[in-house]
Structure formats: C-alpha cells, structure tokens
Amino acid sequence: MKLIVGVSGASGVVMSRTLLGTLNRAGCETHLVLTDAARRTWELETESPIDGLLSMADRVYGSHDMAALISSGSFVTDGMIILPCSMKTLAGIVSGYTDNLLLRAADVCLKENRRVVLCPREMPLGQVHLRNLLAAAELGCAVVPPMLTFYNAPQTVQEQINHVVGKVLLQFGIVSGDFVPWEG
Predict the structure, then answer these.
(1) Strands (E), 93-172
(2) I need a surface site. Which of 64, 117, 146, 180 has the fewest CB within 10 A?
(3) Is the predicted pLDDT of residue 97 greater than 90, yes or no?
(4) What stretch of H or E contains 79?
C-alpha cells in the first residue's frame, strides 16, 4: 500500500510519529508532507528533533514543492491521511484552495476518488468547523477525530494515540497490533 501522510499545524503532531511507525511495520510506502505550521508546532510540543519523524517516511516533500510527485493524479496512491488536521487545512480542502502541497495532495486524492482520512484537532468545534467537517464528509473524506476512548482501559497517552491511529488505519483495511478493538 502507498499512502500520503499530511501533518498540519494543529496540536497533536506527535501522533504522526505513531502513525508513520505503524505504517512502516505494516509494510506501507509513505510519502510525507508537513506544513510550515506543523514544523513549528513540532518544536513547541515535543523535545524530539523533527529529523526522527522525517526519517520514518519513504519520501519527504517540502510543503511549497508544488511540482512534487504527490501533486499529480498520475502518481497513484491508495489515499491520504492528515493527522492532525487543522481547521485551516480543513477549510482549504473543502474550498479547493490548494496553496501548499498538503492541500494539493488532498485535492488530487479527492479528484481521483482516493480515500482521504482527516483527523481534525480543535476543541470546542464552532459552527464553521462543523459545516466544514460536514462538507468534507460530503466530498467523501472520512472524518476520524482523535477522541479519547475508555472501553479498552487505556493507562497512558500513548495507548490513546494507538487507538486513534488504529481507527485511522482501519479506514484502509490495515489492522494495527497496538489497536485494542471493542470485544463486547
């Protein structure tokens, strides 16, 4: 499987590290693009060098490289995951405003009828956010917010992140060994 991973500037950029690690273990080819705001948020929210994240992807693209492979529909992928997805990125996707590579890659996936999974990170959600999330769903995006779960008795933040990543990957038929599903 070949997936594009987009990381926008919303809080929670550290979840992208777990996503890329899980995709690596699943044998997926990954194409990573981070917005400028994602890089800044990484610096603010983590003490880890961003190079560790970048080294986990098969290919990394600059967010201003509008000639990158992932900007074209002729570069065939299985879809795209944006984790986390900022409200700015969401607004760009639903309006077709593609002023950076992350937005262009999402636009390409949608026009080519490829799966796009958005993990919106905002709280509380305002009316504009809710309208944009509905519009994204109507465009065919799967909306998988990184919400807390309790049925699997998580003890750590990492276990919560594993749950979110597991739910995201189920959208592509990938079952993560770190995901604890509901068993009734």
Answers:
(1) 115-120, 142-143
(2) 64
(3) yes
(4) strand 79-85
